[in-house]
Design a protein that fits this description.
By secondary structure, the protein is α/β, with parallel strands linked by helices. The protein has 5 helices and 11 strands, in the order βββαβααββαβββαββ. The longest helix is centred in the C-terminal third of the chain and has 13 residues. The chain binds zinc ion (ZN). Zinc ion binds next to loops.
């Protein structure tokens, strides 16, 4: 592509969880992948937001908890490839231990995912017209990553807000926030709650 389309951000979330569609024109990335058993709800919200599912180039879970990766396998079956960071691979099998049969969780197959390192993420994102990178940001969980766009927008999943960082995860979470800030993050799109501004004072 000779020049990038402007980046747009749309929320297709439900049940108090944001699922962000980051788009460069019609080239799209879905950040966080729904609760188990809610494919109909996600499809309805995509339709309402005018996002054809065929235009989603990858699904990315900020981490493998059920409200963030619950539909990963069903999205794969709908031809949305699952982008997995190497630091997340070991966290995937535990998903099934947090779900009951009535949740209708479809187990994520390990065989057909696109696994990359954070170092490889910039090139992959550039390939779909999205300038940015994926950063490992442990704190809420070891497998947590954030999508950081070059314009300062950052999708942090459940990384604990700096004001609420507890004793247990304090050091790791603060290091993650500092890493994001140093790399240019200014506007935080969390998985739950409102968008907020990150400045040096807040960390
Ligand atoms: Zn979580």
């Amino acid at each position: 592509m000779s020049h990038s389309a402007p980046i747009t951000i749309v929320d297709v979330g439900y049940r108090s969880t944001h699922y962000w569609v980051v788009s460069a024109g019609t080239s799209r990335l879905l950040v966080d992948l729904g609760w188990p058993g809610t494919m109909g709800m996600l499809r309805a919200n995509l339709r309402r937001a005018d996002v054809p599912i065929e235009e989603i180039r990858y699904g990315l879970a900020t981490h493998y908890h059920i409200d963030h990766a619950g539909l990963a396998e069903e999205l794969k079956r709908a031809d949305v490839p699952l982008l997995v960071l190497d630091v997340q691979v070991d966290a995937i099998p535990a998903m099934k231990t947090w779900t009951k049969p009535q949740d209708h969780y479809v187990e994520i197959s390990p065989h057909d995912n696109l696994v990359i390192s954070c170092d490889e993420s910039r090139a992959l994102l550039a390939g779909i017209g999205i300038p940015g990178e994926i950063v490992h940001t442990p704190g809420h969980s070891d497998d947590s990553v954030s999508l950081l766009l070059d314009d300062g927008a950052v999708f942090t999943g459940d990384l604990t807000h700096p004001a609420y960082v507890g004793e247990r995860d304090a050091k790791t979470a603060r290091t993650s926030w500092r890493r994001l800030r140093e790399r240019g993050a200014t506007r935080v799109y969390p998985a739950h709650g409102p968008v907020w501004s990150l400045d040096t004072a807040s960390i």
